[in-house]
Design brief:
- The chain has one helix at about 1-20; strands at about 30-40, 45, 50-60, 75, 80-85, 100-110, 120-125, 125-130, 140, 145-149.
- By secondary structure, it is mainly β.
- It has one domain: Immunoglobulin-like.
- A four-stranded antiparallel sheet has the order 5-4-8-9, with no helix packed on it.
Length: about 150
Amino acid sequence: MAVKLKFIATVAVPLILLYGCKKEAAISTTPSIEFKSIAPNPAIKYQDTVTIAIEITDGDGDIGENTPDVKNVFVTDNRNNVVSSFRLPQQAPDNSNIIVRAPVNIHLPPQAFVDDSHTSETVTYSVYVVDRAGHQSNTVQTGTLTINQ
């Protein structure tokens, strides 16, 4: 019995402490995004606002912008490569240097058809963001959206 306790005290406890005290991996100062959803699906042509949900992670908190004319979210319609730009409001105070993880909804205006000879079209969008330091995130592609007449 004493041998088992000695083993636990000298081997098992230090191993538990070693693995229990791991540092969290550093978060990059370049923002990263993850696609979450696109809705409604299907959408009605010229009628439904389309919402793309993403999650943004930024290691130094300089994501978003308070200047109304500065655009920092970019959405490409992959049917015709038309890029729409939007402004994500500032997520943390200037010079705060904190990790920001935030869900973001991008609202696209009602969508049209590229080819009006159809009664239905499918589309995907590519999305990326740019932080205040000019770092561009990864680009994510949405799931397929169906647009019906």
